[in-house]
Amino acid sequence: MTHTPTAPARVLIYDPTLRDGHHAARHQLDAAQLRAYAAAADAAGVPVVEVGHGNGLGASSLQIGRARLSDDEMLSTVRDALTHSKMAVFMVPGWGTSDDLRNAVARGADVARIGAHCTEADITERHLGELREMGVEAQAVLLMSHMASPAQLAEQCALMAGWGAQAVGIMDSAGHYLPADVTERISAIAAAVGVPVIFHGHNNLGMAVANSVAAVAAGATVIDGCARGFGAGAGNTQLEVVVAVLERLGYATGIGLKALLHAADIAHEKLMPAPPIIDSVSLVSGLAGVFSGFKKPVLQAAEREQVDPVDLFFALGQRGVVAGQEDLIAETALRLKPQAGV
Amino acid sequence: MTHTPTAPARVLIYDPTLRDGHHAARHQLDAAQLRAYAAAADAAGVPVVEVGHGNGLGASSLQIGRARLSDDEMLSTVRDALTHSKMAVFMVPGWGTSDDLRNAVARGADVARIGAHCTEADITERHLGELREMGVEAQAVLLMSHMASPAQLAEQCALMAGWGAQAVGIMDSAGHYLPADVTERISAIAAAVGVPVIFHGHNNLGMAVANSVAAVAAGATVIDGCARGFGAGAGNTQLEVVVAVLERLGYATGIGLKALLHAADIAHEKLMPAPPIIDSVSLVSGLAGVFSGFKKPVLQAAEREQVDPVDLFFALGQRGVVAGQEDLIAETALRLKPQAGV
């Protein structure tokens, strides 16, 4: 990416505050909260506002956590609050279905992102095709991307672009990356695809903003950020900070800083129980490369089996446990437990 | 700095939690709090623990804020709690005097750091000489260092090393740096002096950890960090995070991570009113390059004159206002105020 004085390089800011932030609010945001934040983000010129249950379309359930509002209620509320920003939805096949996507488009979604585990891109093919037929913007992202090599990620992203994704990229779901890791992966992906490249960071190692800057320098042009970092555990890349830093570095986001700070203040004061910080458990989770959503079950299993949660996080990281494998947490805790009488 | 498999590069971690953190507790930490944290940091193998009023020795006053404990009480308490860690004090000439330094050494300080505005190194000469005569380790740091060029900082650091400082470096007092800024400055300083180079970061732009890593890569070997980031505004470099990241990158700190997390948990639960976050004002303050301690008077002046605090921060940054020039805040606010009848 080269800068010229007349046309600064453009970065598209994608704002999942009302979806990823939902994790930190146990999916309990109400219509007034969604409306207040969406209107403020819209006024600041945020290009894309994503909304939904933390795990995406169709994920509201007893097991994962029921959202206060239905997908339909969330989409209608945010649609009404936006005048310029596009509305986006997120879906992981399995939690959501083709019906959920069709319904979201009928409710006014302009963009739909399909997510898959970093080595399972093939589960996105069907839905990417359906989205293109419906005429909405189709994006695709790889979750827990630190578990795959740069070459694997590039290959999976190229497949998704081939199936119609108009932007592809990676999520640092465990908050495990340092900037050099991001540079390597985004460079490989950017060299392999002809569509915009997405980076979505988490702050477990205090590197979310630095990682996002590294991503842009390596060729990413779609950067995710949540107001005040609103998100599970250590939180996401802090939206207003990454926008200010990118603008200072000479990139153009099209977002007004003062209005964005106002939106962040609304998120802080009206949406979040408390702003995210890097506590000891989030730090260890990021170091170990464990999915952020495992924090609670890991702490529970450690307590039950009387093992150190730090040891349990590292053991889970070594086993390469991913979301959906919650049963391995209890089993791993049991293995760590000192044997009686030995 | 080169890495070899047999001898990883060593980074000395310097912990000002009980001094810089004091800013965020209005200098009100009590003896039990100092003791609890100092003992935990000592147990984790933190090499140096700094203690004192937020502004250093002799600074407790009505104008700046009175500390709960006297310098003597703080030093005696921490001295008793440490078994291996060195005890350090900080002093800015003017707030503190030679008598304060002599007294701190008599109370067991092993290290004393003298601070000066980034272009005023000459005020450190006398005290550095006195410290060397007393036989304690003498360090010197430049405050608000973003206001000077790399060449100026290198020149000022070389002067301080020449006057006896056994480690010299820079504080990013306004939290204004991005990693490339740090690389440039630390490289210039490291090339100009023959003593260890210090970097002390703040997190206003979410870059404290990334800046510290950049500093080490550029030749710094003394890195400051506060437990859970405890410090004014957006907080300092988060100690446990920077230690974990440096160790992952192959540097040796000699600190045990589990015990350090325990110390950070104590700081979080027992010392801080709330852990630091990057709020809108801290972000703007860092962008504008304004001293973090100005947050409160800037907000008050903006309120009084009915001007936008964001505009006031940027105007103060443009005027290059530094600590001690509080009267310029009101004057600048007045200038920004729309004239009646115009």
From TrEMBL, chains A, B:
<dbReference type="InterPro" id="IPR012425">
    <property type="entry name" value="DmpG_comm"/>
</dbReference>
<dbReference type="InterPro" id="IPR017629">
    <property type="entry name" value="4OH_2_O-val_aldolase"/>
</dbReference>
<dbReference type="Pfam" id="PF00682">
    <property type="entry name" value="HMGL-like"/>
</dbReference>
<dbReference type="InterPro" id="IPR000891">
    <property type="entry name" value="PYR_CT"/>
</dbReference>
<keyword id="KW-0456">Lyase</keyword>
<feature type="binding site">
    <location>
        <position position="202"/>
    </location>
    <ligand>
        <name>Mn(2+)</name>
    </ligand>
</feature>
<keyword id="KW-0058">Aromatic hydrocarbons catabolism</keyword>
<dbReference type="InterPro" id="IPR035685">
    <property type="entry name" value="DRE_TIM_HOA"/>
</dbReference>
<feature type="binding site">
    <location>
        <begin position="19"/>
        <end position="20"/>
    </location>
    <ligand>
        <name>substrate</name>
    </ligand>
</feature>
<keyword id="KW-0464">Manganese</keyword>
<protein>
    <recommendedName>
        <fullName>4-hydroxy-2-oxovalerate aldolase</fullName>
        <ecNumber>4.1.3.39</ecNumber>
    </recommendedName>
</protein>
<comment type="similarity">
    <text>Belongs to the 4-hydroxy-2-oxovalerate aldolase family.</text>
</comment>
<dbReference type="InterPro" id="IPR050073">
    <property type="entry name" value="2-IPM_HCS-like"/>
</dbReference>
<feature type="binding site">
    <location>
        <position position="20"/>
    </location>
    <ligand>
        <name>Mn(2+)</name>
    </ligand>
</feature>
<dbReference type="InterPro" id="IPR013785">
    <property type="entry name" value="Aldolase_TIM"/>
</dbReference>
<feature type="site" description="Transition state stabilizer">
    <location>
        <position position="19"/>
    </location>
</feature>
<keyword id="KW-0479">Metal-binding</keyword>
<dbReference type="GO" id="GO:0003852">
    <property type="term" value="F:2-isopropylmalate synthase activity"/>
</dbReference>
<feature type="domain" description="Pyruvate carboxyltransferase">
    <location>
        <begin position="11"/>
        <end position="261"/>
    </location>
</feature>
<feature type="binding site">
    <location>
        <position position="173"/>
    </location>
    <ligand>
        <name>substrate</name>
    </ligand>
</feature>
<feature type="binding site">
    <location>
        <position position="200"/>
    </location>
    <ligand>
        <name>substrate</name>
    </ligand>
</feature>
<dbReference type="GO" id="GO:0030145">
    <property type="term" value="F:manganese ion binding"/>
</dbReference>
<feature type="binding site">
    <location>
        <position position="200"/>
    </location>
    <ligand>
        <name>Mn(2+)</name>
    </ligand>
</feature>
<dbReference type="GO" id="GO:0009098">
    <property type="term" value="P:L-leucine biosynthetic process"/>
</dbReference>
<dbReference type="GO" id="GO:0008701">
    <property type="term" value="F:4-hydroxy-2-oxovalerate aldolase activity"/>
</dbReference>
<dbReference type="Pfam" id="PF07836">
    <property type="entry name" value="DmpG_comm"/>
</dbReference>
<feature type="active site" description="Proton acceptor">
    <location>
        <position position="23"/>
    </location>
</feature>
